[in-house]
Structures are given as C-alpha cells and as structure tokens.
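Purpose: get a first structural picture of the assembly so the mutagenesis plan has something to point at.
Setup: four entries, given in the order below. No constraints added.
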Amino acid sequence: MQTLQRLKVRDQATEQIKQYIVSHKLAPGDRLPTETKLAETFGISRLSVREATKALEFLGIVQSKTGVGLSVGEIDLGRVTEHLGFHPSLQRVDPNQLIDSRVIIETGVLPHVVDRMAHDESIHLRLQEIVDRFRSTRDLKMRIDLDIQFHRTLLESSGLEPLVAFGDLLHVFFQRFRESVKQAEWRVSVDSHQKIVQLLAAGKVGGAADELRAHIESHKERLR
Amino acid sequence: MQTLQRLKVRDQATEQIKQYIVSHKLAPGDRLPTETKLAETFGISRLSVREATKALEFLGIVQSKTGVGLSVGEIDLGRVTEHLGFHPSLQRVDPNQLIDSRVIIETGVLPHVVDRMAHDESIHLRLQEIVDRFRSTRDLKMRIDLDIQFHRTLLESSGLEPLVAFGDLLHVFFQRFRESVKQAEWRVSVDSHQKIVQLLAAGKVGGAADELRAHIESHKERLR
DNA sequence: GCGCGTTTGATTGTCAGATAATCTAACGGC
DNA sequence: GCCGTTAGATTATCTGACAATCAAACGCGC
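Result (structure tokens, whole complex):
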C-alpha cells in the first residue's frame, strides 16, 4: 500500500509560493496575492496557506503586515542566525573551535580593512571612538557590549557582508564566556584594542593580526 | 497612543517554545509536549501554537510526526540554505564579496589542516582521492560536485565545525557561477587542486594558501 | 506463552466559519 | 486645500470539528 503522497498540503503551499515568487520574478518589497486569493488558487484552505506563509515569514522570505497584505521579504541572515543560535545541536560546539574560527575570520579581514581605511578615514574614527568609550566605562554590561561592537565594526569595515553575518553568529555562542572576564583583565583588553587600531591605521597588517589573535585567544585560558 | 504590543501571539509562542527547549535542556530527538498541552500552558489557542511550531519546523528546530508528536529537531543547514538559496535578495549578494569571504576562511584554516595532517594521514588520502576522481571524470555535474566536496573536505580537515557550516552556506550562493566554468578551465582547476594537496602534505602553508587564493579568485574573471 | 493481526486512543493535519485588530484609501466637512 | 472620519480590505486569532496517522495495548489462535 503506497502512501507516497506524503507531501503535506502546507508543504505544497510553501513550494507553490516560492514558485510564484520565482516565476513572476518578484523582487523584495513586491506584493503577493492575499491569503484568500492564494488559498483559492492552490485549491486549499486559508489555514494551510497561513501555515506556509508563517513559516516562510519566519525565514524572512515573505513579510506580512496586518491590514495590508503579503510581500516578498528582505532576507536578513542575522535573523536566521538568531533563531538558529540557541539550538542545542549548536550549543555543543567546542569553545576552542569558536575561538579558532573567530581568529581566522577576524585576522583574515584585516588586509581588507587596511585597504579601505586608506580611502575612508571614518573607519579609523569609528574604531577609535569605541576604544575611547571603552576606557571611560566601568559597567560590565557596557564593556561586553562595546567589545562586541568593536569586533563587529572591524568585520564591517572589511565590507564583506557574509563575514559580518557569520561573526554575529559566533558572538551568540561566545556570549556565555565573555561574562567570566575578570575586572582586572579588562584593562589589558582596552590596551589591546587600542594597539590594534593604531597598528591598522599605520597599515601594519601583520602586527595587528598578531595582537588580535592574542586578544581573542586569551579566552582559551579561561576554559579550564 | 502607544501601540506597543507588537509582539504577536505566535511570536511569543515561538520564543516560549525555544525557551522551553533551553530551560529543559532538551537535546535533538527529545519529545516536546503536545500542541494542546503547549496551548494550555501558554494560555493561547492551539492554532497559534501550530503557526509557531510550523515556523520552527521549517527551520528544523522542531520536528513533528503525525500521530506521534513534537520533538526537538536536528538542525540541517542544508535544508535552510535550500529554502534561502532561491531568494531574490540573496541573488544580489556581491559575488566579489563571496569570493573574498571564501578566500579568507579557506586559506585561514590551512595552518590547522597542516597541523592535523601531521597526526592523521587519512586526511591526505581523502583529499588525494577526490583529486584522482576529478581527473577521471568529464561529467560537468560530477565535476562541480567534486569541486564542492574538495573544498568542504578541506574545511572539515581543519576540525573547525563552525567554518564547515559557514562554508556550506557560501557554496549555495556560489553554485550559480560555478556552472559557467568552461571545459578548458577544468583542466587548470584539477592541476590547482593537485598542487594544493601536495603543498599541504609538504607542510608548506604559505604556498598552499597562495595557490588556493588564486584558484578561488579565478572566478572573479568570469564576472564581467 | 508466543506470534500476529486488530483495535483503540493519542496526536498531528486540515478544514470551515466567525470575530478582532489594523491598515489604506476614499469621503466629506470646514 | 487640509484634515479628521469612515468604510473596505486584509491579516490575526479563536473555536470547534473531523480526517489521517501512528504506536502501543489488546485479543485471538496455536
């Protein structure tokens, strides 16, 4: 007895909606038919269409506004990683791997950062401002926040969006041991950030990379 | 006039379900309460719970089996990227950024690869096998497949799981211009792969990185 | 006692219909 | 012409019902 029509109604619906977007060559922001219209077109109930659109909306593939309708969404990798980040199967990633991964992408972007710094002085300013604010605060929460911001800005300055998104993801996992940083170590941390900015501004990629690597790997010592 | 209750019921539900998973320390495969139970617990209708679970299921965060119930899912990045890959807004990611990102993570892992190669000879064998199969096929589809496999194996050999996952993601977007590689260029590509393997086996990280960079960046020339 | 089909209860899947909340656009007073 | 109001459209949520599916308990024959 074949029970092979396993494709559930709402899964058909998601496929058909995706199909619709592709075949009509819709761009982000373009309108989709209403839920009722889609239901009629597909010959299914409105509820199933809803389950499909809600799922797609979750990923950012479509957007819905109450009283307005559906439209093609602007995908935000950040949102996806946010939902994925908490998941148990990802929580078990070895902290050492996280650290090594961060070292690779953050030191890897430095050449790009230096290149762009040469043509855009605002990058230097932005980084320096974070370091300054760093120095003038003692609030733990704020320091963590600034630390994240510093490293994110670094990635952003490379102009490589995919790596920014990925960096965000890594930071989600990192969060938990960042809080274990002792007060005394923050002073060292500030100096380290300052040194990195200066080396970058001077175009010394190698030196900046060494300093950055040491800075991130300092977390490894807290893992025992 | 504050209309700040923006959090929709089903969004609360998704958060609460995620919360449930975390606070109960559930692992993939573990059972969740039934939809009805969840609805009662959260004080909302079963329908809203459904929309939440369907969205989460779409990402692979939870799984549902008819007649059985809900359970925590095994996240499959491949599935996510499959849904994401077609999306118009991702078709617009700057190809140059993709290439640069790949160069950074793939050359970045090479030191780790060499380290692990020294203690595990199976890595060399696996890479070499792919190159051999590469040489003996002419099927375009197969070649693309092997190319992906080669680069994935490289990342895997570093032992840095986060980067493997991220590499998978990048490959999805890369797909589309991989098909434009001309037959003639595949020969060059094979040689390049072979050279990388040899340099790695010899512990020459720098040389391997240069070759790998050139290999990936060769795609840039096809972008005009 | 054991093997095997059957039943049954639990659970998800799908539907229909109704009401609330919200937004857009048309309307109308001034 | 400007601005508040209204009306229609659309999504958001709920209720209640029934179908489909599955796993475990059941019972029958041996």
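Chain A touches chain B through 50 residues (CB under 8 Å).
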